[in-house]
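Sample 3 of the quickstart, ligand beta-D-galactopyranose:
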Amino acid sequence: MMKSFKLGVAALALSTGLAQAGDVEVLHWWTSGGEAAALNVLKDDLSGQGIGWQDMPVAGGGGTQAMTVLRARVTSGNAPTAVQMLGFDITDWAKEGALANLNDIAADKNWDAVVPEALQKFAKYDGKWVAAPVNVHSTNWVWANKKLMDELGIAQPQTWDEFVAALQKVKDAGYTALAHGGQAWQDATIFDAVAMSTGGADFYQKAFVDLDEAALGSDTMKEAFDRMTTLRGFVDDNFSGRDWNLATAMVINNEAGFQLMGDWAKGEFLNAGKTPNQDFLCYRFPGTQSQVTFNSDQFAMFDQNGKVSDEQAALAGAILSPTFQIAFNKVKGSVPARTDLDVSELDACGQQGYEEFKAASASGNLYGSFAHGHANKAAIKNAMYDVITAHFNGEYDSATAVQELVSAVQINK
Ligand code: GAL
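Result:
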């Protein structure tokens, strides 16, 4: 009796698009195979607590489209219960007073002590917890096909020049050297690592965090754009518009040598049954071996009549529970959002990522990824995307791209 009543309510909720008591409606952009597998870990956890899941997926890597849908939903007075968000998007929504205060659950579960400072910067606003961090990803990774590397005798490139030589070898052997999807956020994800490698950490800080005009307009920035032109010469003819996970599939299927992508790419390798160091290799983008550019997926809860609902509290609690953090991040490709966990269950790339995150944090080499909304607000990020993409597609030469970047930032600051 109870069950059919619940099913009926769920069906009604689906048809009206409104979350019912006992459900959470979650807006997210995790639609690839690896992402969906990770999301299932969360759905299962909640269903174990008797909480129903209303899925609101908005496809589009990096979340640009999801954020547009979110704005429309909030404007029409129909905010979802919980929303996957990144960096400055969270604090910007908090500034608008749209997010629920999670301080009770945070205090109860001791989040202040276990969530690293770098994530708290985005999860808290004005002394209040407004989001529950589910993971830490980092963006400056190279994913390499082990079989092709062995076949062509390519060792891990340590420098930009070695990387270009490796790409050339793969290309000369008739494979796609660089698997890439021509979408603005993917172009920017590559640029994130290229800029860090070209100019180093101080340059990255000045240009992408401080928005210093001299750094934005520098010869170093021009060189970073020139390197993007070099990389453009190693993608295949069909790169335009390709989703990131299809680019990962090219590496998985022995069609391409490398992909430059955040460690959500690892979720695709794992989902395809592949093993690190046997089938694929993970290493930092050459020249960024000591740095980590990170992003953290967090779930912000939209205020429901001034209080946190039981379902929102349950979701937030589940997200930061130690067992869930390990189970989820194993599948997602990311590392836990808490520093007090035993990560021996993570695979080799995961353990490496976790160690590097901690080391970079301790040595002052941890930077929020500008391409993933952790260096500046969305208006700046999107303005940078436009320039980087226009340059990658040959609309601007490097000198023009530098000028356009400076003025894009000026206008949107
Ligand atoms: C990132 C997000 C990851 C992954 C990726 C591709 O912004 O942090 O979790 O989903 O986009 O969709």
